[in-house]
Fold these 4 entries.
Entry 1:
Amino acid sequence: MEPEEKYFSNITNRERAIFEGAITMGALFHQFVGTPVNSDTVKSLEKAIEDAMSVQPCVSSVEVVIDREILEEISNEFDYVSLSGEMLDVKVTTVCSDKQALIRLKFISELNYPLMYVEDVD
Amino acid sequence: MEPEEKYFSNITNRERAIFEGAITMGALFHQFVGTPVNSDTVKSLEKAIEDAMSVQPCVSSVEVVIDREILEEISNEFDYVSLSGEMLDVKVTTVCSDKQALIRLKFISELNYPLMYVEDVD
Amino acid sequence: MEPEEKYFSNITNRERAIFEGAITMGALFHQFVGTPVNSDTVKSLEKAIEDAMSVQPCVSSVEVVIDREILEEISNEFDYVSLSGEMLDVKVTTVCSDKQALIRLKFISELNYPLMYVEDVD
Amino acid sequence: MEPEEKYFSNITNRERAIFEGAITMGALFHQFVGTPVNSDTVKSLEKAIEDAMSVQPCVSSVEVVIDREILEEISNEFDYVSLSGEMLDVKVTTVCSDKQALIRLKFISELNYPLMYVEDVD
């Protein structure tokens, strides 16, 4: 048993997959919201977010898509915006032993809110 | 049913309590790590972190303790440090319907790591 | 001479007042943008931002006003928003020896941009 | 005259070069400190920081070096650390009309502090 596993003996593998994915999603949002971004820099930012969040416990993959339309419509002379939750569509996949979870961050128009939810779980 | 509830129909109340607490803990860490802090400002920072994270979905209370010893031992002439994970001891309590979870962030010496884990859950 | 002063011997006191105020303003924006906030928590967040940024070198005072109107108009069921640059009106005053600078962050409608500029300097 | 220039008519080009470089450095530090990083992800993080901060006003180039030694010495089973100021060596070059400034962030051992200073200015 890994030393840290005793801290997780009170939850199931499915629950830990959900737990670690949720931490990663909260972390991702609050680490990177506010970052300056435009059409030229969006790709390297997506890749860095994916790479950074992939090192977290139990995370097997991270896919980040930043809304290009918003970037193309920038209407100030400074030619960039601060990354906001509305611009993000993110999938974090976690694996804990035999269980897998897919956590999603997506702006939901009817809620007017960038929602984090469990899109799929074993 | 609240409009957002359909996004959570695939997990149990216990799982959602864990999910929302984990998001909040990841968010808290990555929002506030790096904040300048010293013995004079530590109280207002603790309170602001508690208040800010209490507004997140399902969160019923947040307790933040920043290590005073580290602040008292600051050994540079600038008289402050950047908040780091090692300095944080945090409890986030979430309630989802009839289920409650207590998520903890604590520096674990034997792991040399600020661990987030589920300390208690119904 | 303080040990750090040799690093600033190539600029004037007026320039250092501007320099340190600008660092503090950039720091403030990127540390706190993204923080969850609503009408109940806005005061403690303003105070914590003021306290945190006041510890930086040469900073003599920080005044933070977060736009209440935006908070009152929150139109989602989650009852909070993420702090954004558009909501912030900030004054950072720095003193370097006999020189003082007032750095301002303010959303400028005609620029559609939260601008940082030197509002006043000796 | 660009619309924003009236906000800078009270400072010289040299001062604005210093001002914008300082904002960018403060922003960079507080946006990215806390990001998970290890030897595998360090390159994409360096590039994303450089790209993101290059879009800020007057910034002509950004060079970021994250200390590899610290990453190689990670002594926990999670195999990553949170980016801290101690790990960063950054050069931000700004140009304002005929004036250029080089702002540096570097950990200074004798100060035990990650110092931001003006390394060179016209």
Entry 2:
Amino acid sequence: MVIADAKRGDIGNTSSMYAKSVYEHFKCDAVTIHPYMGEDSVRPFLEYEDKLNFILALTSNSGASDFEKLKLEDGTFLFQKVISKVNSWNSKRNCGIVFGATKIAELKENINSFENLAVLLPGVGAQGGSLEEVVKTFKENNRLNLVVNVSRGILYKSTGTDFGEAAQNEIAELNKTVINLL
Amino acid sequence: MVIADAKRGDIGNTSSMYAKSVYEHFKCDAVTIHPYMGEDSVRPFLEYEDKLNFILALTSNSGASDFEKLKLEDGTFLFQKVISKVNSWNSKRNCGIVFGATKIAELKENINSFENLAVLLPGVGAQGGSLEEVVKTFKENNRLNLVVNVSRGILYKSTGTDFGEAAQNEIAELNKTVINLL
């Protein structure tokens, strides 16, 4: 499964071309999308029924507190409003959200609002998120629709000539951790 | 002036590479940026002192009402919070905002909060924004730090073999409109 972590999001006619580029030209299976510009900026991606569109909800970085965690008039957080909107866009079951593996407390508090959304969780490894905590949380909530992304933790596992082997071993270790928890 | 309307925005180390790509490889003068992920996703762009970073505030599309116009706990709108944050990031005077030319009422209400920000205004032409209204509003507020973007209104002015001439004439007309208003 190839996920284009392209963080797209633009006015409708431009998003249409981005969707075409990611799904038809590059033939990716999924893409990450910025929600800020709202429904018509996301809609063109949703026309692709056999793809998976991961919309940013609560991201793994510290800046998540600047806007994503702002409290709205009704007492909810902006990222919760995003999750609620994405649920409403998911009639074709091709929507997901991005939720930082570094935000375990928020994950536990919000996991029951994810309805049928697939969840992409970056932040394990270099960013400090715990793979064990993430998998346990999903298991405890009887969910298995998660994709845990580890980038630098694998890519930069070794700077020596053994980087290929080191990366492969790290992937094997991570997979073993997940299998043992399920 | 070349503005990369790339709508970038990612975790810090990725944004650093995007900034390098846009400014060092492609040698653009400015870029558009998604604010959703917060300060550390924008910061790498701000290191380039002689560039101009236009952060999305209130966009020209209908989806702007989904999140950008959500009311926060303190009674302000999300896009107003973004403008306020961008003001606080503007110590090097290399920040701007994107504000839809289709949103004249909001432009009039908020223009005095723009402090030293340059303003990129898309939405004139195909999207229905009025060039006259935009320029008048800036003039009435003694501001000249605006960039009005017209894309499809010029690019698709003619589908015939005269498209070059038609586009050139449209640019001349638009410039004449601006000059007459100033």
Entry 3:
Amino acid sequence: MSNSIPTREQDYSEWYNALVEKAGLAEHSAVRGCMVIKPYGYAIWEKMQAALDKMFKDTGHVNAYFPLLIPKSFFSKEASHVKGFAKECAIVTHYRLKTAKDGSLVVDETAKLEEELVIRPTSETIIWSSYKKWIESYRDLPLLINQWANIVRWEMRTRLFLRTAEFLWQEGHTAHATAEEAIEETKKMLDVYADFAENWLALPVFKGVKSESERFAGALDTYCIEAMMQDGKALQAGTSHFLGQNFAKAFDVQFSDKEGKRDFVWATSWGVSTRLMGALVMAHSDDQGLILPPKLAPIQVVIVPAYKDVAELSEINVVARNIQNELKNKGVSVKYDDDDTKRPGWKYAEYELKGVPIRITIGKRDIAANKLEMVRRDTKEKEVISLLGAADLVVSTLDLIQENLYKKALKFKNERTFVVDSWDDFEKKIEQGFVAAHWDGTAETEEKIKELTKATIRCIPLDQIKESGKCVLSGQPSSGRVVFARAY
Amino acid sequence: MSNSIPTREQDYSEWYNALVEKAGLAEHSAVRGCMVIKPYGYAIWEKMQAALDKMFKDTGHVNAYFPLLIPKSFFSKEASHVKGFAKECAIVTHYRLKTAKDGSLVVDETAKLEEELVIRPTSETIIWSSYKKWIESYRDLPLLINQWANIVRWEMRTRLFLRTAEFLWQEGHTAHATAEEAIEETKKMLDVYADFAENWLALPVFKGVKSESERFAGALDTYCIEAMMQDGKALQAGTSHFLGQNFAKAFDVQFSDKEGKRDFVWATSWGVSTRLMGALVMAHSDDQGLILPPKLAPIQVVIVPAYKDVAELSEINVVARNIQNELKNKGVSVKYDDDDTKRPGWKYAEYELKGVPIRITIGKRDIAANKLEMVRRDTKEKEVISLLGAADLVVSTLDLIQENLYKKALKFKNERTFVVDSWDDFEKKIEQGFVAAHWDGTAETEEKIKELTKATIRCIPLDQIKESGKCVLSGQPSSGRVVFARAY
């Protein structure tokens, strides 16, 4: 990678920013806080979308699309929801521009909306205003809908993928006849997210529930998956909310059960966003560039010819295209880079930067020996392998890389998660990673810890062991450990 | 279909509106002019997206994502572009709400944007402001990018799918070194659209170029495909624009050619939208409901059991699930509706309304005879067929239906396109369909014809025969016929 980019050691934060731009994932746009997702980054996002979409459909959900613009009054209907989102809304007030006398383009003040419209920061309100029309009886339940959409939250400090004024996401919104069923759905979708994180992103996660102060505005419970980045900080990678009857009450959505009794509907919502792109980069990549899990890599294998002259190249072309076709037939996405204007060394660095999982180099001498060189991006191991059976070996190596990235991340997560019982230790260990410590359950202590260390409760783990202990800060009784970390 | 819906004969316009809602495709939302695309409608749109996306990628394009919000000043940079879009823009002026003293939610006037942002009505300006950073030399060209996005145009009179304040679309934006190459791209993408219309929507189209007055704001030439609806009116189904160097000049995007000479880049843009959903409904459906081309039908085959009691049903279940699996293995999307709370007659009407291409009914007697009943949605033909080989026959019948819909639409288009030489005839025939007539090439005559008949020039056909003639209205010389119609 160009030496204008710092190493992770030098400046982890700047390493991330520079890598996202240099690798062609995304860049800042002319609009404050809004990013352009560039083709290479978008290709990864498309692969995430396809995998998630299939998982949603396999669990019985269907897609739909609801309006971008939400009447301001809808927000007021759910009290805590408006508190959570009113401060970061983009608001549409007019619907026409005009040319002023001096020739400049100005807002036409005569085209003012009667009621302002808010660009969706999340869609609970507009969706539940529709559900009111769709739900009449238990026969209409459960209603299991997902939406792929863009979202705007007027964040003040933004970073590519991690926090942007506009981002892309999916939001599931489901309606159920009972609280139990809704809670089951909330947990099921958390499991889908954890499954996706582990098996696609190669990212082990903590599954848990948020403390009250970190809950989604309008939820009774917020479940989350939390992943550890290479600097030991946490990244919330997905959330699943049990909304109780809050939105059903706000929009008066009732149903008749089999006995004709009327009750409000129970709700969930759940989402993951282009933040996952940031998690992917921060979890696996190194000082040379991206390291992509093969399942999400737009190019899984690149073949680079090493040659002296055109005669050599045309000889290599035949062999390279053969293996390219063999790999394609096995479902591998493979690029043969025979661009004659770039040297092999330049190409090696470029595909390292781009995180292509396997690079194959073919030279004239390799062909004579019926060999080729295979280089793994994750371990940088070089291996000279036989042409015969090379395609099968490449395919199984892609699986190995996927597995290795997960194992490496899991090892790191385990090594950097500290069980801590004293405040001294807490302050030391929180610099290095996650801390599992007793907490007295109060918002005051939570807030105090945040002030002292910048660490927040990432989650109360779902697999928490019930054990009596003393709060790491206050010394008050606690019934189990929760996970603290500094977070993105 | 419920008799609350008029027939096409009674009220074509109301038939369309009611059908879109009753079949569960879309409905109006609480926000003026914005629709909710319901799951069944969205499932069709997803199939359209998948097919188009593959066609774009097969022709060398990649996807990316650009911001929803565009600085107002960007619009002023291309003079005709701003004229075309300034009158129908949703404008963001503030970024925060607050609770007023009386407890109501109001816009926080202290959170006013320095420069207003426009919700994209199309993305040429924001995209070309990025291209300026991406294009430096001929090596960066061509740049072939597509975006799937939502769009807002503040239309005053809206109709589900056909004209809505917010809609979904794709927009291709390409950059080229020469005018010839850009024109070639413009035409290539028009061909992709025509191919998609014919082979997926089963919709024959006129391919042509717009007259100056119907051109896209900022284009040198707008190519289009125009389809005929069952009432003889035209629906513009896709457009492809040759933008010349207009946007490159507006955003100062220059490149160096191989000799180091600097020049402005040549551009195209092209798009289709959820309007295609409207075209699909209006072109093929009948008074009983939707008729969907099998390639775009979310459910291609439905199996309905006809039974007296539970014992019969469980016998039918075995046979039905066998054929369901057989069809699934052949890639057919098939639903077995064994819902015991609904009668077969109700189900027949429901799947007719939903436009499912083939319905299979299985009763006890059918099983005894090793038969089943197959009903085509397009022709309503019933056929009793042998269970043995039924799956293959269903698959080939799906192909026949796709073909038949296209042929039927083509026959209709041919019958309702009239070659006309007198003004009398023009006025008569324009009531029934498209009119191919000589035109003197002036905007005045075009405008006059529109005033007199509401018909516009849909396109100057690409296969126009050069022949001398006299303008159907003015009698002035003309070099070929153009296509007139009333349009959606």
Entry 4:
Amino acid sequence: MADARQYFTLPSPYRMKRGGELLDARIAYETWGTLNAARDNAVLIMTGLSPSAHAASNAIDDSPGWWEDIVGAGKAIDTRRWFVICMNSLGSCKGSSGPASINPATGEPWRLDFPDLALEDVGHAGYELARGLGIERLAALVGCSMGGMAALGCLAQHAGFARAHVSVCTAPRAQPFAIAIRSLQREAIRLDPNWNEGRYDDAHYPEAGMNIARKLGVITYRSALEWSGRFGRIRLDPGQREDDPFGAEFEIESYLNAHARRFTRAFDPNCYLYLSRASDWFDLAEYGGAPDPATSVRNALARMKLERALVIGVETDILFPLEQQQQLAEDLRTTGTDTTFVGLDSPQGHDAFLVDTGRFGAAIGQFMDAS
Amino acid sequence: MADARQYFTLPSPYRMKRGGELLDARIAYETWGTLNAARDNAVLIMTGLSPSAHAASNAIDDSPGWWEDIVGAGKAIDTRRWFVICMNSLGSCKGSSGPASINPATGEPWRLDFPDLALEDVGHAGYELARGLGIERLAALVGCSMGGMAALGCLAQHAGFARAHVSVCTAPRAQPFAIAIRSLQREAIRLDPNWNEGRYDDAHYPEAGMNIARKLGVITYRSALEWSGRFGRIRLDPGQREDDPFGAEFEIESYLNAHARRFTRAFDPNCYLYLSRASDWFDLAEYGGAPDPATSVRNALARMKLERALVIGVETDILFPLEQQQQLAEDLRTTGTDTTFVGLDSPQGHDAFLVDTGRFGAAIGQFMDAS
């Protein structure tokens, strides 16, 4: 299977929000469909913390993408009509520059010398990428989870950059429960002696810390409701159990083990730390200039000059609770954006946007078709 | 301050549910009030995972107890009327026998050689303790959180042992979300190299693992709602921040740090592992003999021969969701027990029974006064 990634070199130096700069930094991205002559059919997707730019299969890489059911010909984001771009976040390890990529000044991986990363840097990189592809204005900017915050950060810096915005399972600012979870995930990695202040290698890798961080992620990405129906108190067969007095005994434990195994070596721990912290830091209220955050968020949204928006979330999401999406939709409406709010009762929690693609696809498709 | 603990030696050998036995094992307990001549005014309290037997101050130890606002003269559990006993769980490290106490066969701490612990063993120890104090039947058996499961385990083994039962923030069987959380807490301890298969000492102590386990506990013991109101996105003053690029920056992180600091050296890691796993294992449905768990739980409750019950919980509890208490109350009613159900909207999550003592005290006091 070939690699469908393309690479865009960001303007150099690329100045970071919190100080520091990157030289010749790049963004990995994939595209589907064709940019029309008017260059007004572009849809840019910003991802959650860990996905790559491979949102869907395409002619070069036919492996299924992380949003395979949503992006494609005849699908919710119909690639026969839209020129779809999905970018790997700045700071990630799936082709874009980040703590795991090479610092050109030293020839070594950046590790913790990578400058502080803000989601505004991720969002601004998306703006630069679109400009680099000759796109002045997006038909729609789509942001999922962390990518939803990056998208708001992008729009806060670049008023009018998108006609429409699709905000999926995200929030304009993290609440303390989400901060607590992410802080603990970071701490699990940092407490692993193999993390070694970011100087690990394949032979000395913070596997234990990543394992805990990922499991805690999965616990908060899904929902108690889903698990009660799916796993209940089902036990593993004796043959499946580990030979360890405290090893996995319930199916739910084995499910977490499988998730962790797939992730720990597939995502760079330092990149994880940077993107996780950036998620805590992001606060749209910084862009509104009012003393109280609620007014500031509304002010910031008003300045984005969005024509239309779809805000979508699920009732069982404990990381980005539905109340936050409901408030975001109300605020967008108040500030003159034609806004559709969809609150789903999917049982899968935060991850529903990756799993309950039938309902997400229906809502997103209806919105996109009306564009 | 003197130590108010008394000790009761369990019948020896004390046979454990899952095999193995203890010789000369003991239970630490404290008492308040006076057992009357009829010996029918005894109230036994079984605690959550970590508290000691010191539920309230008394003449010998005037330090505040963990349920100081609930237990005392003129309080919800009025020690002028009731002879109140609070026991430290078998398997804990607050005076009762457990993995941290000495194995008489070797003169060394039991550590992982302690037999498998079930909450039925904890509950049965409470029965033996009461019998040892000359009490045939309790006026009320009170169980909070893990102690609520131990209490159900006790009553499942000893029908008619209590006239009334107060079930606080607990469940007849853990759901997979709670199992997932506890499994991850145990894994954090076990992955700490200093845990060393249970052979740690003060100089080589699984501090990092206990730190993560405790923080994850606090996250699930409280609620997102409470934290949003209490901490929001408040930042620490620069002077309070650690000199670490990923150190605590938000107040919620500092709050978690403070909780972890108070706990990690105050509770024995092996005892934590045993009690945590026992909480996953407990399943009242084992005592009902029906093929489906729901019917089995009802059967088991019917056999307890309780006259009255109070079942109390809170809407924001994610570890023992209110639906479980509501179901427990319905089942008790169905099986002929005069049952009061109180569902509170306290914002403090599972910990509300330790914090929102005004409302818990009112409900418990009303129930106890009507006895």
